[in-house]
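Replying to the earlier thread about multi-chain prediction with a worked example.

Input:
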Amino acid sequence: MRDLAVLFKGNNLQRLLGGLGVTLELSLVSVALSIVLGLLAGVLMTLKNPVVRAVMRLWLETVRIVPQLVLLFLVYFGMAKTFNLQLSGEAAAVIVFTFWGAGEMGDLVRGAITSIPVHQRESSAALGLTRGQTWRFVLLPQAARRLIPQAINLTTRMIKTTSLVMLIGVVEVLKVGSQIIDAARYDAPQGAVWVYGAVFFLYFFACWPISLAAGWLEKRWA
Amino acid sequence: MKKIFALIIALILTLSLITAASADAQARTLDEIKESGKLVIGVFSDKKPFGYVDEYGEYQGYDVYFARRLAEDLGVELELVSVDAPNRVEYLTSAKVDIILANFTVTPERAEVVDFALPYMKVALGVVSPDAALITSVEDLRGKTLIVSKGTTAETWFTANEPDVNLLKFDTYTETFNALLDGRGDALSTDNTEVLAWAIENPGFTVGIESLGSLDTIAPAVQKGNDTVLAYINEEIQKLAEEQFFHADYDATLKDVYGDAVDPDNLVVEGGVVE
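Result:
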């Protein structure tokens, strides 16, 4: 219990919140880009064109098979070594998480679109809707509803995975946590429990509202 | 951890293949650093007392103290970058930092990929054990259980030189020290700097063997071939010997941790000369 004080020593609490800010900024920018690009990618993935399909397939398999840490290293260190392109850790992180998120989101969008019964498309055609109108008024609104649970899942997964960016020098909430634990390792040897506990709550309160919003949207649209 | 480590190794191999076929990222020369007005140094941010961030968010520690002096004497600003043990080499080869000052132990393998300057510290292995059954020599350890962390010099040294010592291995430092507290082994071995600091905080335990195995040195590192920066660091280290800079550094950063139990001359290297 005594070691709980480590959380309030100096600016530690502000530092943790600052770290959470970095985590949220990186993940929200990446998530926003992923949603926009993912919607586009998802529509492309439903196309029958073999070239488009092959490219999309390759992209999706890459983000599924290659661990995010390797992608981060490739973009952060690899780009510098190969093309002498010096990206900041933050930029590398957004590139990698968007590449990953948009690929996965695309697959979710594709799944949601193809799950809509074919008679919906046929009925729209029978009513004289154009292709654009069919997408806009019939297919996408229905697909969006089916998409929400998985998209939220992906979003929270992305928020949590941003902890990997500490390995390319970006100091986010978990790294701040380990810095605090280490700086207090002689004065507060049991501090780890409290610091990790605090980090747990920070992640929880970052992800929980997203889950709540998703639940609300699902109910409202169902 | 193991998985991550394997990945990193695989990655480094891939990267070096890519690199072999292309133009390298060139580290900045001393003139370029002066011109930019900023020296970029990679340090640990969670390895007290060598490189860590205090409760006010300021970098501190033995390595950081030296980093500040390097920038000051060059007349430029200092930018510190948080690095971790597995990616220290990458930061240099990809020219993300000018210098690595992250408790970097000099080994022949590392010397093939980076250039080490003169050493500013030395370490050997230490063995800590409970006072009730204090272990004071390697002979005492034979047939007993010694706790080590995977991938450390302690693991390598005991495996190669003392096959009769039973090793109990863990992934992280925290686990190894907890195992000793729980009595799951007779003693624990890792860098002497670590065990000495730990024993002071944990009454009932004493470092019975203070220096064991080969003496390793710790030195700043620069990208291979970055001779101007390397020369600057070496000049600094030699020049600073006059004022016993690293003893002052020890007093400012390490003394609180090791107390009077440790002779600074067992750890500190002045002027790059290891006697």
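Residues 116 and 143 of chain A are 7 Å apart (CA to CA).

Feel free to reuse this layout for your own posts.
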